[in-house]
Specification:
Layout lengths: L1 H22 L5 H10 L10 E6 L1 H11 L6 H13 L4 E5 L10 H12 L4 E7 L19 E2 L2 H4 L5 E2 L10 E3 L9 E2 L1 E2 L2 E4 L2 E4 L1 H8 L15 E2 L10 E4 H10 L2 H5 L5 E6 L7 E4 L5 E2 H14 L4 E2 L2 H20 L4 H25 L2 E2 L3 H27 L3 H7 L5 E7 L5 H15 L4 E4 L16 E7 L5 H14 L5 E5 L8 H15 L1
Parallel strand pairs: 1-12, 1-13, 2-3, 2-13, 3-6, 7-14, 16-17
Antiparallel strand pairs: 3-5, 4-10, 8-11, 9-10, 14-15, 18-20, 18-21, 19-20
Helix pairs in contact: 1-11, 4-5, 4-8, 7-10, 11-12, 11-13, 15-16
Length: 517
């Protein structure tokens, strides 16, 4: 009853955890990080995605002609126009141009003109703290692409950081990245969802600008899309901005052709220019890679899906009940240990396989914790309580429970080496005749008793036998003992109706012990 009662307690705990998970959905960050970093494989990065990187090398190579950063915006404009002419499918510009360049108005005019003639170029818009909404005079209805749910709410001003180029107002996307409490990015919001409207993110807007329809709707990811990092199959192709500019200016057909049909992400990673954040895959990841991963997941549908919490709760319950059953039917300890090891290894193997080769994330942390806790408690109980009962048998209780039955007394000699065989014999007899019908005596006398030393190494098993089946029980018990590699001595003890007859049984054990000694 102990094992079943404990299992019931654990089942209640699992159900309570299920209710809690329904109330607070989402996979644990530590479980996600561990699974992603231990995976054997990952989806391959989309070869059509290209990161054009304003890195330290680009700053150094272009400094003689354009000076230190920030460069005149005509430099960016020329490269954007060159990529469009080369046949780039879309151009995501991950740079913020929130203020006009007062010192170079002609460069701004050039960029405005390029954006007006490049319909597949998208720029970022940044959502600022809503506490500043009252200080803004800009409503989301000013920009094309918003899905309006409540016209009155959508018409209210919101605090946003928008580019200084009105030519791009029809092709803006939010570049806000959801950051967890530890500062890492693990999820992505395809849409910025607010009470009055939904507005597409920058990567989603870039896909739409390239004619790619994902079918993703504003309410599809209420808790964010879990990003499926390309951390085992190589990264996205990345070229230095200086090299791209040189390719486009060269006029070499081969060098220019590499940009045809590409989904370009133009951003900065040079020190002090680009954003660096932790992710589930690495301690340091630049924003351009995060945007590329989000774009890839939305384009190919490879974002990570979490197995429903009810399925994991069911797996936890089955694990607990399975372990309880093994203890209740008195399976050998070595088999229980093996089963538990296989079970836990299997959970981990399934998790790693799924996150490596499928878009599904199996969070088995709770299942492993419940199974480990149950296993630990039952092992301690079995080691202490049951061993104590077997080591100090209560003869009177045993006889009271089997009044009127004859008994079969079995004696075996075992030293240190054969103890394992004796335990195996006892468990097999318990399974065959019932654990309540078998009494194991392996310490007739306490340490220091004059007879403790002579009978050391002797074990005795008492089986309460149904009166009509004595001969069959005797033969089966003898077969079990011999199958365990032991040479048994068997003595028949008549039925004992009075609990005081414990003395008769004890004398029978002593007599058998004397014969064996």
């Amino acid at each position: 009853m102990f094992y079943l009662g404990l299992a019931a307690v654990f089942v209640i705990a699992i159900l309570a955890n299920l209710v809690w998970n329904w109330a607070t959905p989402g996979v644990k960050n530590t479980s996600l990080d561990l699974a992603v970093r231990m995976r054997l494989s990952s989806p391959p990065p989309d070869p059509s995605i290209l990161i054009v990187d304003i890195d330290e090398r680009s700053l150094a190579l272009l400094a003689p002609d354009h000076g230190r950063w920030p460069w005149p915006r005509s430099v960016i404009a020329e490269t954007v126009a060159g990529l469009a002419d080369a046949g780039a499918r879309s151009i995501l510009i991950n740079l913020t141009f929130s203020d006009p360049d007062r010192d170079h108005p002609q460069d701004d005019a050039t960029f405005q003109d390029v954006l007006a003639h490049t319909p597949n170029a998208v720029l970022p818009i940044t959502r600022l703290n809503p506490a500043n909404d009252s200080q803004s005079q800009v409503a989301i209805t000013r920009f094309a692409g918003a899905q309006i749910h409540d016209p009155a709410a959508a018409a209210k001003p919101i605090a946003v950081l928008v580019p200084a180029f009105s030519a791009a107002y029809g092709r803006l996307g939010f570049n806000n990245l959801p950051v967890d409490s530890d500062g890492a990015v693990r999820r992505f919001d395809p849409y910025l969802n607010e009470p009055g409207f939904s507005f597409p993110s920058l990567p989603l807007r870039a896909l739409e600008a390239g004619g790619i329809r994902t079918g993703i709707k504003p309410g599809d990811f209420p808790d964010g899309m879990i990003l499926n990092w390309r951390n085992k199959r190589g990264g996205y192709e990345r070229r230095s901005f200086a090299d791209v500019a040189a390719d486009l200016e060269s006029g070499d057909t081969r060098r220019v052709a590499r940009y045809r049909g590409r989904l370009v992400i133009l951003g900065a990673t040079a020190t002090g220019l680009g954003g660096i954040r932790g992710t589930a895959a690495a301690a340091v990841t630049d924003d351009n890679t995060i945007l590329a991963t989000a774009m890839d997941d939305m384009k190919s549908g490879t974002w990570l899906r979490v197995i429903p919490v009810w399925a994991m709760a069911l797996l936890s319950i089955l694990s607990i009940l399975g372990l309880a059953a093994t203890f209740m039917v008195r399976v050998e300890q070595r088999w229980i240990n093996t089963l538990f090891g296989v079970l836990q290894t299997g959970f981990i193997a399934v998790t790693i396989y799924c996150v490596s080769y499928t878009p599904y994330l199996v969070d088995i942390s709770a299942t492993v914790l419940f199974a480990l806790s149950y296993f630990t408690v039952t092992k301690v109980y079995a080691a202490i309580h049951l061993s104590a009962v077997r080591g100090s048998p209560t003869f009177s209780d045993f006889l009271q429970g089997h009044a009127g039955r004859p008994y079969l007394l079995i004696g075996v000699r075992g030293g240190e080496a054969p103890k394992r065989r004796v335990r195996l014999m006892v468990r097999r007899m318990e399974r065959r005749f019932g654990i309540r019908n078998v009494l194991h005596v392996d310490n007739l006398f306490d340490k220091g008793h004059v007879l403790q030393q002579p009978v050391q190494g002797l074990s005795f098993v008492v089986i309460a036998v149904p009166s009509d089946d004595f001969s069959a029980v005797r033969k089966e018990a003898e077969d079990i003992a011999r199958a365990c590699g032991l040479a048994p001595r068997l003595v028949d003890v008549p039925a004992l109706d009075n609990p005081q007859d414990v003395r008769r049984l004890f004398k029978a054990i002593l007599g058998l012990a004397g014969d064996m000694v």
